[in-house]
Specification:
Order of helices and strands: HHHHHHHHHHHHEEHHHHHEEHH
CATH class: Mainly Alpha
Radius of gyration: 22 Å
CATH architecture: Up-down Bundle
Distance between the termini: 51 Å
Largest sheet: 2 strands, antiparallel
CATH superfamily: Sodium/glucose cotransporter
Number of domains: 1
Number of strands: 4
Number of helices: 19
Length: 510
């Protein structure tokens, strides 16, 4: 325990030190939100990866989907690496950097306003972001507190509060550059830590081959054996839904897309593509591969884990050496603090730049920075309250919170953002329709199925699953936007505006 405390305290002191160091380098709002658009490929790639993977993945998703799909849950990590990391960098990276710089857009709502010539789109998208980033933040607290409680025997409420305080300190002090340097350090911890943990867990059951054999011998609900070690697991249809939500969803998340706004140049995008993909293969692949062996460590209680889904990975950690458990704590803390810093910075900048500043046009940059810092604290406070409430409610699990958040955000933003980077014919009416449907479908599903505890399966696909609902909402948006754009016609001034916007790609940029 002494060693674990030393590791933890040293790590937290380092994060605060980074925040203090960058405190004096904040000269403008662009510096605070985007690091002055001067970040190189390694910092940007690690910032992308560490914002992507947090305690939600390591504790919540790896545990739940590893239990449901066995070793085949590794496909989720592979999907995260190639669909969620490689393809966004290839398809969105360069165009996002160029167009956001041309439009002088610092946030996704500001991008929607200036790309589609609509202040209404900015206001509505900002509200959606602020509301639906909260359950995502709560799910990160939820996952981290469960692991801390297991390691240090500290009540989860205090874990959540301390976590929020440290995140607030270094983000409020140092802004985006502080989070980027922190993300790089945290990313190194994650790469080393997840590799060591996977090897340690496999060795507890005689290595990889013996672990797979033991998984193969575990029967599913019908008594059939072999499925939990099969290539596509016992339920490939619903496994595909998980892959789509957790991979394609990153294309429409404001805290992920915003990383491309800050990258320095096209060369940095090319290098960042490779670094980000390799990072995701190791971290995401390792997390889900690890979770796939959860049934070897946790007993089944009428088909469900005796510890609950969110207790599977913490229970697995009991089997590894104490010093390595300390490394795991830093690993998960690293992943979680990087994700939290990205979420709170995104939310506070959106609220300040896109909702408050339009009504106070005479705000100086100093005032903007002050308001952002205040809102970081407000956002964290709301998230802490929700996290404590959900932890005290045993029916709420991490993956559900995250699925609701990702379903609404990516369902609303993915299609308008992706199409908006490439095609001139997209109309503001189509964008608004996607906003309404993305949020509307998510809320309707949440109240009818999640809160109503109803079930519905069609052709083997669990429609009642929040995960599948999020994936279907994103696909629906990709179909809806072209259809509505064909039906609605842009005004002449909107056509002229769009032509001016797309001139940014005519320039030769390095």
């Amino acid at each position: 325990m002494v060693g674990m405390w030393i590791i933890l305290i040293a790590y937290l002191a380092l994060m605060v030190g980074i925040g203090v160091y960058y405190r004096r380098k904040m000269a403008s709002v662009t510096d605070f939100v985007l690091g002055g658009r001067t970040l190189g490929p390694w910092f940007t790639a690690f910032a992308y990866g560490t914002s992507y993977f947090s305690a939600v993945i390591f504790v919540g998703y790896a545990g739940r989907f590893g239990w449901s799909y066995g070793v085949a849950s590794t496909w989720v990590g592979i999907g995260n690496a190639f669909i969620g990391s490689l393809l966004p960098w290839l398809i969105l990276g360069r165009r996002s950097r160029i167009m956001s710089k041309h439009l002088e857009a610092k946030t996704m709502p500001e991008f929607f306003e200036k790309r589609y010539n609509s202040r209404g789109l900015k206001t509505i998208s900002a509200l959606i972001i602020f509301v639906f980033l909260i359950p995502y933040t709560a799910s990160v607290y939820n996952g981290l507190s469960r692991l801390f409680e297991k390691a240090f025997h500290i009540d989860y409420k205090y874990c959540i509060i301390v976590m929020a305080l440290f995140t607030a300190i270094y983000v409020i002090l140092g802004g985006y550059k502080a989070t980027a340097l922190s993300d790089f350090i945290q990313g190194v911890f994650m790469l080393v830590g997840i590799t060591a943990v996977v090897l340690a867990v496999l060795n507890k059951n005689g290595g990889l081959a013996n672990s797979v054999d033991k998984m193969s011998a575990i029967p599913d609900a019908s008594g059939k054996t072999g499925d939990f070690a099969a290539l596509f697991g016992p339920d490939p249809i619903n496994l595909l839904g998980v892959v789509l939500l957790t991979s394609l969803g990153t294309w429409g998340l404001p805290q992920m897309v915003g990383k491309f706004y800050a990258v320095k140049d096209d060369k940095a995008v090319r290098i960042g593509t490779i670094v980000s993909t390799v990072f995701a293969v190791v971290v995401a692949g390792g997390c889900y591969f690890l979770g796939g062996f959860g049934r070897l460590f946790v007993n089944s209680d009428n088909g469900s884990p005796a510890t609950g889904f969110d207790g599977i990975v913490p229970e697995m950690m009991n089997s590894i050496p104490e010093l390595l458990f300390g490394v795991v704590i830093v690993l998960v803390l690293s992943a979680s603090m990087s994700t939290l810093s990205s979420l709170v910075l995104t939310s506070s900048s959106v609220m300040t730049i896109d909702l408050i500043k339009p009504f106070r046009k005479k705000m100086s940059e100093k005032q903007e920075l002050f308001v952002m810092r205040i809102l970081i604290g407000v956002f964290l406070l709301i998230s802490v309250i929700i996290a404590i409430f959900t932890l005290e409610n045993p029916t709420t699990i991490i993956s559900t919170l995250m699925s609701i958040s990702w379903g609404a955000l990516a369902g609303a933003f993915l299609a308008p953002y992706l199409y908006g980077l490439y095609f001139k014919w997209v109309t503001k009416a189509a964008v608004m329709a996607c906003f309404i449907c993305g949020v509307g479908i998510t809320l309707a599903h949440m109240f009818y199925f999640t809160f109503g505890k109803r079930t519905l399966t069609v052709g083997g696909l669990a429609i009642h699953s929040a995960i599948n609902a999020g994936a279907l909402t994103m696909i629906f948006g990709l179909i809806l936007v072209p259809i509505v754009s064909l039906i609605t016609r842009p005004k002449p001034e909107d056509k002229q505006h769009t032509e001016e916007v797309f001139k940014c790609y005519d320039k030769t940029e390095g």
